[in-house]
Amino acid sequence: MSYQDLTGKVIVPKDPNYDEARTIYNAMIDKKPAVIVTCKTKADVINVVNFARDNNTEVSVRSGGHNGAGLALVDGGLVVDLSEMKAIAIDPLSKTVIVQPGNTLSDVDAATHEFGLALPSGIIGTTGIGGITLGGGLGYLSRKGGLTIDHLLECEVVLSNGNLVVANKDTNPDLFWALRGGGGNFGVVVSFKFSLIDIKNVYAGPMFWPIEQAEEAMVFYDTILKTASNDLYGFFAFLIVPPAAPFPEHLWNQNVCGVVWNYTGPIEKAEEVFKPIREFGTPILDFVSEIPMPALNGMFDALYPPGLQWYWRAHYIKELTPEAIKVNVTHGSKVPTMHSTMHLYPIDGVCHDVANSETAWANREARWAQVIVGVDPNPANAETITNWCKNYFDALIPHAMGGAYVNFMMNEGQERIKASYKDNYERLVQVKTKYDPNNFFHINQNIKPQ
Ligand SMILES: Cc1cc2nc3c(=O)[nH]c(=O)nc-3n(C[C@H](O)[C@H](O)[C@H](O)COP(=O)(O)OP(=O)(O)OC[C@H]3O[C@@H](n4cnc5c(N)ncnc54)[C@H](O)[C@@H]3O)c2cc1C
After folding, report:
1. Which of 78, 122, 283, 362 counts the most CB atoms within 10 A of its CB?
2. How far apart, in whole angstroms, are the C-alpha atoms of residue 21 and residue 263?
3. Is 149 a pocket residue for ligand 1 (Cβ < 6 Å)?
4. Is 143 in the pocket of ligand 1 (CB under 6 A)?
5. Ligand 1 center to residue 131 CA distance, Å?
6. Architecture of domain 201-408
7. Atom of ligand 1 nearest to the CA of 83
8. pLDDT digits (tens, 9 = 90+) for 264-289
9. Domain 88-198's class?
10. Is pLDDT at 2 greater than 90 in this prediction?
11. How confident is the prediction for the chain on average, in pLDDT?
12. Which tens digits make up the pLDDT trace of 82-96?
C-alpha cells in the first residue's frame, strides 16, 4: 500500500500547500512531516492508522494544532489531521452535544449558545476541542461547572489496531477513565459527547491594578476566591496593556496586574458581588459588565492570532503563600513583551468535588494551574521570552506541587509526566498496555506501556 491509496487528502513535501498544512499555532515549531493526511470521516482515520502501523510509520494526531510543544506534528512521520472533521450535533432537550475533533472552542460555543447552553472549556476560541478535552480542560466555567472532562459522556476512538470502539462509563470504562486527562495516548478520538450547563450571559471581563499594588492584589484575589461562591471565577494575570483600543491610551504598554472575572450568578446580584472587588486598591481599568458567554470566550482571540512565537512552562499551585506571592511579583512585574503573560487558572469550586481516582486527571487538590507564557511575533525575541519564562518557572519550583497540567507542558521528560499523573500513573500504564501495547501513539505527553 502506498500514500496514493490513502483516503483523505494526502499532502506531501512537494505539494504547494505543504507548508500551510504543517503550520500550527505556535510559530516556534518547525517540524517537517513526511505526509499529512487530512481526514474527513471515521473511515479515513481507520485507514490512515492501519496504513501507518503496517508501514512502521510514526504518527502524530492533530485537532486544533494549539499544543505549545507542537505535539500535533511529527518530523518525518505521518500526521493524522482531524481539522476538517467539523460536525456538531446539539440536542437542546437532553442538553448534550456530539462534537467531532476538528471543532474549535468557538465552534462549540456558537452551537451551544443559541440554546442558552455552554460547555466548560478554555479561554481562547481557536483552541481545538480534541487536545483540550483529552488533557482536562480549564477555563472560565471551571469553578461552577468543573473541567471539560467532567462533562464528557462518551467518545468514539480508533485504536492502534484500527478498531473503532466506544468508551463511556459502561462500555470500555477503563479506556473512558484514561481518556479523561490521559491525553492522546490511547487512540484517535473521532467523536466526543458532552453534557452542557445552562449559561447564556455572564457578568465578566478584565480589571487591572497598577503593578505597584500587585502583592496586595494577589492576597486580595486569593482571599476573595476562598470565600466566594462558585458563581465567581477569576484568573489572575501579570501583563502589559496592549497599545490598542479599547484600552485607554494612557495605559498602553504599561506593566500591570489584573484579574479576568466571570460571574455566573443572578445578574441582579452582580453589582453587589463586585462592590468589595471594586473597592480594593485603585483599579485602573474595569471592563467588567454583562456580556454573552461567547464574547468572553473570544475576548482575547484577536490579541493572540496564530503565528506568534510561544514558549511556556507550568505548575500546579496549592497555596499562594507570602513567599510564593513575592516570587510572582518579582518575575511577574518583568513581563518582557506585550503578548507575554502569567495566568493563574482556578481549579477549585466543583472541580474539587471529583476524587483524583475518578478520572486520569490527578490534581484535584490543587487550587490553580499556573502558566507562564513567553509570547512574541518576532523570532529574534525567542531567547528573551524563553529565558524570562524559565527563570520565573524555576523560581516557583519550591512553591509548587510538582508536575503540571499536561496541556501546558513542553517536552519535559518522563519524570515530569509521572509527577503530573501521580497515583494515577500506574493505572494509566495498565490501560495503555491494554489498548496501545506497542506505543503506536507516542507523540504526546507519553505514558509508556509495560
Ligand atoms: C492560546 C492558547 C490558549 C489556551 N488556553 C487554554 C485554556 O484556557 N484551558 C486549557 O485547558 N488549555 C488551554 N490551552 C492548552 C490547550 O489545551 C492545549 O494546547 C491542547 O493541546 C490544544 O488542543 P488542540 O486540539 O488544539 O491541540 P493539537 O495541537 O491539535 O493536539 C495536541 C495533542 O493532543 C492530542 N490530540 C488532539 N486531538 C486528539 C484526538 N482527537 N484524538 C487523540 N489525540 C488527540 C494529541 O496527542 C496531540 O498531539 C491553550 C493553548 C493555547 C495555545
Report:
1. 122
2. 39
3. no
4. no
5. 3
6. 3-Layer(aba) Sandwich (3.40)
7. 30
8. 999 999 999 999 999 999 999 999 99
9. alpha beta
10. no
11. 97
12. 999 999 999 999 999
